[in-house]
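hey can u run this one w/ iron/sulfur cluster bound, need the structure tokens asap thx
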Amino acid sequence: MNAAQVDSAQVEALAEAAADGIEFDGFAAEAEGDGYVLATEAGSKRVVHGDALDDAAAEYAPYVTNWYFWHAEAPQAEDRWAYLRWLERADDERVPDRYDALEAGTTREWGQLRVTVTVDEAGTRRYELRHVDDADAAPADLTDHDDPLDARQLAKHDDRDRYRPLKTAPTLQTGWRFADLGPGELVRAVESFYPATVANWHREREGELDISHWRETIGRQSGIYGVVRTWDRGEGHEHVDWVAEACCVDSQCVKRREWQYDEETDLDVDGGDGEFPCREPCSVVIAAARRWTKLEGEQSRTYEFELTPSEKEQIEDIVDAVADGRTEEIREADVYEGANRYRARFLRAKRFDDDGNLSGVSTDPEEAEGGADADGSSADEDEAAEEASDD
Ligand code: SF4
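ok here u go:
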């Protein structure tokens, strides 16, 4: 059984609020004559004189401290309040059971964040935050932080110190811990790791998530991104399926994609299982789509390459390994793996000519040396010119 204890400030607040009546989380209290009526959903009911409220409140300590926390200590903004209650499964568990669980620590995952909520005797919740992959790490092996805004810095780079342009990519660095945050601090830290996710999660629960689908979002692009509008030519949405498959699946982003091609047309790719929704194509996707718009403007050609069957499969292995981010895992000794570095170097030595052409087949038979286009400009020059004309 839990060890909740009511303090004088809580009794005072209870007496004041009972004048208007309290009904919260299976607990009710109201002023009646010279005293109060306290009751729980479990059927317990007490009528007490005003002087005896202290003792009566102590009997209902888990309910009273729980009511006090949620009304006097937790942030009152609707989305934050709902999020904190979700963390401890407040809608699913009755207060005594919830308190028993909180004493041991109730854990939830949010993207790659792992939040553990505990409660003290006064009903005050404390929150521990760490990376899901550090679930079993000893505290001594993690670096402690207490300022929630440190999360912004931690979110910037991955474990290999590479910049993370997409904050919800599943590449959050490990090795840190916020050991003891208050409720407001916890939400601030979570929002620093994953901006706007709490607000959008709450909007979705309330049926108020404002989704901006691909067509709508693309239609708003201007400046250097305006070119993306030309990618939609009214020829279906297969290209957007490819975008979603490339960028938005669970292996690439912890958000659950809710945007589709347009209001009437769903994409064929699953949106993922993320806890919080994605309401519109993000800037990383738009920037990639800008590049694809240009590349997809090219017509297919037929090339003829000399490859052994194993070499063809090796090229497929390499594309797979790069697309799945597995190249780092492939050991140098593992020469059975097509994307093994020595195997790739062997293929290049054997099949590339001095200009880097696969099987000696130039990309454009008419192009000048150095990868220039027919008009003599390089791809980078084209891009720069395009940006300049867009500006
Ligand atoms: S658009 Fe895709 S990649 Fe970008 S945040 Fe949404 S789900 Fe993630």
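The CA atoms of residues 8 and 54 lie 8 Å apart. anyway lmk if its weird
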